[in-house]
């Protein structure tokens, strides 16, 4: 925790008690009381970055006219990967701060899986220069499983030197559930090193005694609940459930009925993965709030989840309410139920001039797409019989996949995609220069009629994942990613249809978020022309290689039966 001088404390006391004028007076606002849900006419007195007075009237030389607007605490995104916004932390905050997100808790494990400790250090250095308060949970599972090739390995000894950094909260989502339950030594070392600090969970579909054991390791939050009964069991067992609504994973509809005034101390909001296109169309945490309210959630419960519960769940006792002694993160609303954000103060500062004064730092990780050799069409042939083939089934809005067993067409000793039944090939190509692995399989649910889509964003090891119905197009897409340093590529009839370069670790653009948003729109239109029916096909593609989420996945080792954590083909 940052130290504070006695003189500053004395100054706050004088300004709050009226002995001297506040540094800033926010005049004439209606404070939404997170205790009772009342709207209270008030001024807000601010000393530096801290609120020192509410529920009273103040005068001072610097006044911000609230014009009778409603004010609420800054929103907290309790779990996300900045890399999944496809832009740098500095562009991320420029994108989400106008939506009222003043605090975000990130896990840099996407970049860490490519670069290791330098990725963590980059995020900590960036966070120290940002206007929003970006907090970091240190990545617990790099790699996330033993059935994939990652660019780095992080053990407990790699993490502990960083654990006391002022931007670090604790340990990030513990995805290796089998490792926790079996007492794997590396898992036990990490849990022991961070015992007594915050440890984030990742427990999709986990119930009963397995959940009891998992929680007994000191894990306290989870963002993977997809059903209300699952989430209720978790909060009854002491977890804080983070209701997720991202660009792919959309759990709000299922969990909103659980969010009431009574349960709001145990439920918070997160996005996990949300890109600039989705943010432009819908919003960020503000979208979760208004969507929850539209589904019948009481506004008091929704705004508590977005701020007070989130702050308490992660030990951020200096925020979450608009009250004396709390950080001056203030969101101005024109409409409470619609959560229409009109202005934001972050740490007592208007965000626009504060953003202009930042000094961003360069990101590491360029030229990180390292193929052992260029891909060829032959690399994507699948030999053998098409009888009773395992096939991944896409579930729109979920990262969970079905484990299907289907008969597929075959010719000349090769198993083929089945376009009329919406079954395409999928492959994962190792891209960290450590081996030449290629895992091959089939997936149903993209709607692809021809061509190929390829991405260097492939959670969590971030090898290249490619889906297609033409082997030569698949090879061209993979090779193009190596040429541009990573990103998204669409190939059709041996020609590049569209692409989005992500040269920073193959995960992030160095362009403004507006440019990324426009490129995503072009990509989306191109995929629709090729028959793709998924709203976010590249983000859906990115989760096919995630072998810690049920049921059937694919890595550079091959198809993975997640239930048995076994490579099956």
Shape: elongated
Question: Residue-averaged pLDDT, rounded?
Answer: 96
Give the CATH H-level superfamily of the largest domain: Metal-dependent hydrolases
In terms of DSSP E residues, the strand content is 25-35%
* CATH third-tier fold name of the largest domain: TIM Barrel
Brief summary of the model shown:
The chain has 569 residues and is of the alpha/beta class.
Q: Layout of helices and strands, plus pairs?
A:
Layout: H1 6-16, E1 24-32, E2 39-47, E3 50-56, E4 63-65, E5 70-73, E6 75-80, H2 89-96, E7 101-106, H3 109-115, H4 117-127, E8 133-138, H5 156-159, E9 168-174, H6 177-182, H7 185-193, E10 198-201, H8 208-215, E11 221-222, H9 228-236, E12 240-244, H10 252-255, E13 267-270, H11 276-281, H12 285-294, H13 299-313, E14 330-335, E15 340-346, E16 349-350, H14 351-356, E17 382-383, E18 389-393, E19 402-406, E20 410-411, E21 414-415, E22 423-429, E23 438-444, E24 452-455, E25 464-468, H15 471-484, E26 487-492, E27 495-501, H16 513-529, H17 537-542, E28 552-555, E29 558-561, E30 566-567
Parallel strand pairs: 1-4, 1-5, 6-7, 7-8, 8-9, 9-10, 10-11, 11-12, 12-13, 18-23
Antiparallel strand pairs: 1-2, 2-3, 5-14, 14-15, 15-16, 17-21, 18-19, 20-21, 22-23, 22-25, 24-25, 24-26, 26-27, 28-29, 29-30
